[in-house]
Amino acid sequence: MKKPEKKPIKKPEFYKAVGRRKTASARVRLYPVVSREITIGDKTVGKDQILVNGRMIESYFPGKVAQMLYRKPFEVTDTRGRFAVSVKVLGSGPNGQLDAVVHGISRALISIDSDKYKPLLQKQGLVTRDPRMKERRKAGLAGKARAGKQSPKR
User: Residue 53 — left, alpha, or beta (φ > 0 → left; ψ -120 to 50 → alpha)?
Assistant: First the structure.
């Protein structure tokens, strides 16, 4: 009887994670870039570039503050320039989506090397999911979540 051959464990083509904030959900894929650039779908992406919903992240989240936020997980873990990133984000508004993307990138980095990256990212508060959402409207009240009906005085 033949022994079954052991198949070598293949490294994944990408590392994936989901980040969330408010009602936003971001599906993140980190592609290790060996050459100068890779093709994701129909777009060509280079090292240290992030694609959000088919657009470059600079046009999706413009501004210096946003740029500092989405680059922070890579700077904290010292992995800047090693990955090309693809993100699909849905729900909420721009700020919620940006925080969801940062959360997803952090979780994807943790899936690469948990022992090395998790303490660094936790110290910066990038792994914690922020659960705050808009409170739902209660029936029988005056339109908003906590507003009460006005009563007449006479």
Answer: left
Question: Domain of 115: which CATH number?
Answer: 3.30.230.10
The answer to whether the CB of 84 falls within 8 A of the CB of 33 is yes
Whether 87 and 18 have beta carbons less than 8 Å apart is answered as: no
As a whole number of angstroms, the distance between CA 68 and CA 144 comes to 35
Q: Is the pLDDT of residue 11 over 60?
A: no
Residue 96 maps to a domain: yes
Q: How many domains would you assign to the chain? A: 1
Total residue count of the chain as it appears in this document: 154
List, for residues 61-74, the tens digit of each pLDDT value: 999 999 999 999 99
Q: Above 90 in pLDDT, residue 108?
A: yes
Is position 4 within any domain?
no
